[in-house]
Design a protein that fits this description.
The complex is a heterodimer of chains A (about 675) and B (about 260). Chain A is of the alpha+beta class. In chain A, helix 1 crosses helix 17. The two termini of chain A are about 45 Å apart. Chain B is mainly α and about 260 residues long. Chain B has a domain of about 120 residues. Chain B is about 75% helix and about 0% strand. Chain B is built from 15 helices and no strands. Chain B is globular and about 65 Å long. Classes of the chains: A alpha+beta (about 675), B mainly alpha (about 260). At the A-B interface, helix 9, helix 10, helix 11, helix 12 and helix 22 of A face helix 1, helix 2, helix 3, helix 4 and helix 5 of B. Chain B: It comes from Ophiobolus disseminans. Chain B: Involved in the proteasome-dependent degradation of fructose-1,6-bisphosphatase. Chain B: This is CTLH domain-containing protein. Chain B: InterPro entries: CRA_dom (IPR013144), CTLH/CRA (IPR024964), CTLH_C (IPR006595), LisH (IPR006594), Ubq-SigPath_Reg (IPR050618). Chain A: Involved in the proteasome-dependent degradation of fructose-1,6-bisphosphatase.
Chain lengths: ~675, ~260
């Protein structure tokens, strides 16, 4: 049976056992196939992309998702396998994403991760345009959009904003491997670029072979650090140099001998920068030693570690504008170095060094007081910010309560009942109340009411902001589905979808192998003592009308009515925006309509769309649009403050300054 | 989106490139609401917090037990009733003042200031209570700590100058300023929060400081940023009165 089959596949995909009760199958799909185009192909695509999504979060997306599809446990859809194979091939062009431990949670890591996801999405999009409609629906709606949404619990609406084309100034990637195209010829690069081996004959005294990593160490990291392990120091020597160099430095010499080249040498433990005579620095190193090299871009200094021990600061006054690439050099046959750019845990506790740096900067910030204002004015300033934000965003009741409490506080402070209180009574303006009504309606899920109020009070807003109007209309559809879902849950407390459509069963019959799993699951359910209505599945149409309980029947009728209304509304919605060629509109429609494919959306990959949290962004966007229509600033002073702060911190991070150690959102807003 | 750029571009005819960077930042309302709620709860505005939870549809953090208590302590300090405040703090957790002698001293000194204020407010008053309190409560603590001693000496000198407040030097007027009580109250609040394992300082305060720090750092580093980075606080207060009235009236007619 079709839905059994796909839920089984989903269960396999998510690594759970066959006993679970999730049935995310689109039993209604037949009824809506005219809206979804070939909706029947959705489920296994979805389950597949859920897999790839979850794996993608860990940064190892391609190989696993690929092998799963290649395994192809869905014989009747073998035509789809070709498509996925094609996708897998292209995704593999993008190397897996990793974050070095000490950069986890940093702003730069977040940016790079975003960029990586965007790249993957772009690849998938590019592929999907060549394939069928159904495929593009599933890739765009689930794997790309949803996984971007999930972490922040944002609704569908934000997707449209965030899906901007990649910005010109992309975040600087960090090194991931030795660059096969930027090495001396006699070096072999092995093991996906992690290992460098000297393969030629011994060089003359002055000559050596060096290789640079694929990317320079990004200043935005604040501190960048990598390690190498000496796999073999070769037969007769350990002339190995570990360090960094500019992009133009000759690779025929050991690092450290040229200008803009800095290194720590294994044979004598000395450090070299633009000189052939080194300075005593640390221990010598040889086979199986782990050497770490790091730059602190805030102080423009470089340091080395050996086997987890800090060896000291080696270089100062690095050039703030130079791009430094991790570089190693060697000159004896057999010498082999393996790099760890953060793919694996480091030997040295670099995390602590970064933490300490962060803590020092946080302490500096905590001490920072405005120069022109006394510390106590900070409270007044914050109260102004809060008061203005509450009024601006239409939190009328809160604004009033806050003003009351603040006045109370000020009176107490002044020791005087009649003191001149600097807190003006909140201006009870009509707009604030209206906006509050509209917001409340949206937050309650009553989109009709919100639309009615908005049209009555601010007729121009929906006209001028078509995208918001569109989002409200979509949200209404989502709310209708929500209600259908709730009622279904009330009517049928058993998790298995009881209703069915004849089209679904004809689809099921196409899948000949399905019966086995069907029986298997049934048995399991019986063993577990779960009431399973599935045996009577095929007769359910008749049973439905003969429901014993009256109120059940009543609800059933209401549910049918609601389902009918939802479908009608959905068709209206589709018609209204059918001619809209905007990509984001099409996408949002696809996402929304994909919801009806599921009898039990809550257990599907699309469940996040249904969350009430999705109402918030719609409400906020409408509120902003109304404010703009009133000639007010769309963002409150507090938002402005966050924007300015974030922009300033970014500015302070770009050159590796102290801003690199701050993640405004993570460190200050959560 | 378009909305955010409209108002800004109107205000600044030649847009600084940094302005675009600011506009590109899209703070999430969820985060901002969180910061607001965090402030209301940790700084002790229970009624506003409750309303905000309803209006913004967010969860009220589970710190309800202490919030009322913290509000009472704050109020007691604000009105100068330090005795009550200290009792309440000790009821809540006697460890707080035991482990933070500086905070305890600050509270006692506040109490001394109130005593001095009371006994110097009328010519006939007796300064003995203030002297007794100083020698019994503050002097033993000040004996072991130079900073405390300096503070105590300064505070005692109030006895000489009061009630002639007009000629006081700044150090002394600061002692009489309500801000001192506010500062101590906020320190007490932080100490209570920290003692409960919560984050002591409200995120809003850190955020405001981060902005100051970032701006001064950026200016010191010679970054290309506009001479002023207005928040629009004043702006928002002035402008609405004009456009608001018109629109409100128009909307009224529409409804009818």
């Amino acid at each position: 049976m079709y839905n059994r089959r796909s839920s089984y596949a989903a269960a396999v995909a998510s690594g759970s056992t066959g006993t679970n009760q999730t049935h995310p199958a689109p039993t209604r799909s037949g009824a809506f196939s005219h809206m979804l185009n070939s909706a029947h192909s959705t489920p296994h695509n979805l389950s597949h992309s859920r897999l790839s999504r979850s794996v993608d979060a860990d940064g190892h997306h391609s190989s696993m998702s690929n092998s799963w599809t290649r395994g192809g446990p869905l014989p009747s859809y073998s035509s789809q396998t070709g498509y996925w194979q094609g996708l897998g091939g292209s995704v593999q062009d993008i190397p897996p994403f990793f974050v070095p431990s000490y950069l986890r949670g940093s702003k730069h890591a977040e940016k790079l991760h975003e960029a990586h996801k965007a790249k993957l999405a772009a690849h998938r999009d590019a592929k999907s345009t060549h394939s069928s409609n159904a495929a593009s629906l599933s890739t765009s709606s689930s794997s790309v959009n949803l996984h971007k949404m999930a972490p922040s619990h944002r609704g569908l609406t934000h997707e449209i904003i965030e899906r901007t084309p990649p910005v010109a100034d992309e975040p600087a990637p960090w090194p991931t491997k030795w660059n096969d195209g930027d090495k001396f010829a006699q070096l072999d690069i092995e093991d996906n670029g992690r290992q460098a081996k000297f393969s030629g004959s011994q060089k003359t005294h002055d000559e050596a072979a060096a290789v640079r990593a694929d990317f320079p160490m990004p200043r935005q990291c604040g501190i960048y650090y990598y390690e190498i392990t000496v796999i073999s120091k070769g037969k007769d020597g350990r002339m190995i140099g570990v360090g960094f160099s500019g992009p133009k430095v000759a690779l025929s010499r050991i690092p450290g001998w040229e200008p803009d080249s800095y290194a720590y040498h294994g044979d004598d433990g000395q450090i070299f920068s633009n000189t052939t005579s080194g300075k005593p620095f640390g221990n010598k190193f040889g086979t199986l030693d782990v050497i770490g090299c790091g730059i602190n871009f805030r102080t423009n200094t470089a340091f080395f570690t050996k086997n987890g021990q800090f060896q000291g600061t080696a270089f100062r006054d690095l050039k703030p504008t130079m791009q430094y690439y991790p570089t190693v050099g060697m000159k004896k046959p057999g010498e082999t170095l393996r790099a760890n750019f953060g793919q694996e845990p480091f030997a040295y506790d670099i995390d602590k060094m970064v933490q300490d740096e962060k803590a020092a900067i946080q302490a500096e910030i905590a001490r920072a007081k405005s120069s022109d204002k006394a510390a106590t004015n900070e409270t007044d300033f914050i109260h102004q910010l809060i008061g203005q934000y509450l009024a601006h965003d239409g939190y009328v009741e809160t604004a009033r309560a806050f003003a009351d409490e603040a006045i109370e506080e000020a009176r107490a402070l002044a020791n005087d009942e009649d003191a001149d209180i600097p807190y003006p009574e909140t201006v009870e303006d009509l707009d604030a109340l209206n906006r509050q009504k509209i917001r409340t309606a949206i937050l309650d899920g009553d989109i009709d009411k919100a639309l009615k109020h908005t049209t009555a009070y601010y007729p121009s807003v929906l006209r001028d902001n078509e995208n918001i109007y569109f989002k409200l209309r979509c949200r209404k559809f989502i709310e209708m589905i929500r209600r259908c879902n709730e009622m279904t849950a009330q009517c049928h407390p058993v998790p298995t979808p009881p209703s069915k459509r004849s089209t679904a069963s004809t689809l099921n019959k196409r899948n000949s192998t399905a019966t086995d799993e069907y029986d298997f699951e049934m048995e399991l359910d019986e063993q577990l003592g779960v009431h399973n209505p599935t045996p009577s599945w095929d007769n359910k149409d008749d049973d439905e009308e003969l429901d014993d309980e009256d109120d059940m029947e009543d609800k059933e009728i209401k549910l049918q009515q609601l389902t009918q209304d939802t479908i009608t509304y959905g068709m209206e919605l589709r018609q209204e925006f059918a001619n809209d060629q905007r990509r984001e509109v099409k996408r949002a429609l696809e996402d929304t309509f994909a919801l009806i494919a599921y009898e039990n959306v809550r257990e599907s990959t699309l469940a996040p769309l249904l969350e009430t949290a999705g109402r918030v962004p719609v409400a906020e966007e409408l509120n902003s649009a109304i404010l703009v229509s009133l000639g007010k600033s769309s963002s409150a002073a507090l938002e402005r403050l966050v924007q300015i702060t974030e922009a300033l911190v970014t500015e302070l991070a770009d050159d590796g300054g102290p801003g690199a150690f701050i993640n405004v959102r993570r460190d200050f807003l959560q | 989106m378009s909305s955010s750029t409209v108002s800004v571009s109107a205000a600044t005819p030649t847009r600084h490139p940094f302005q675009r960077k600011i506009d590109d930042v899209k703070p999430s309302k969820t985060d901002i609401n969180f910061v607001i709620m965090d402030y209301l709860v940790s700084e002790g505005y229970p009624r506003a917090a409750e309303k905000f939870a309803k209006e913004a549809n967010i969860q009220l953090p589970l710190e309800e037990e202490s919030i009322q208590c913290r509000v009472e302590i704050r109020q007691a300090i604000h009105v100068g009733d330090i005795d009550t405040a200290i009792t309440k703090i000790n009821d809540l957790n006697p460890q707080i003042l035991d482990t933070d002698p500086a905070l305890h001293f600050a509270l006692l000194r506040l109490q001394l200031i109130e005593l001095i204020r009371a006994c110097t407010s009328s010519a006939t008053s007796d300064i003995t209570p203030a002297l007794n309190f100083a020698s019994s409560q503050l002097a033993p603590r000040a004996a072991t700590n130079l900073d405390f001693l300096k503070d105590l000496e300064l505070t005692m000198s109030l006895l000489i100058f009061l009630p002639a407040t007009s000629t006081l030097q700044k150090e002394l007027t600061d002692l009489l300023d309500p801000c001192l009580r506010r500062n101590v109250a906020s320190k007490v609040n932080e100490a209570i929060l920290t003692s409960m394992g919560a984050r002591g300082e409200a995120r809003m305060r850190s955020l405001v400081r981060l902005r100051h720090w970032a701006e001064s750092k950026a200016r010191a580093a010679g970054k290309d940023i506009p001479p002023a980075l207005p928040l629009g606080l004043q702006d928002a207060d002035e402008r609405p009165s004009d456009s608001n009235g018109n629109n409100g009236a128009a909307a009224d007619i529409m409804v009818q």
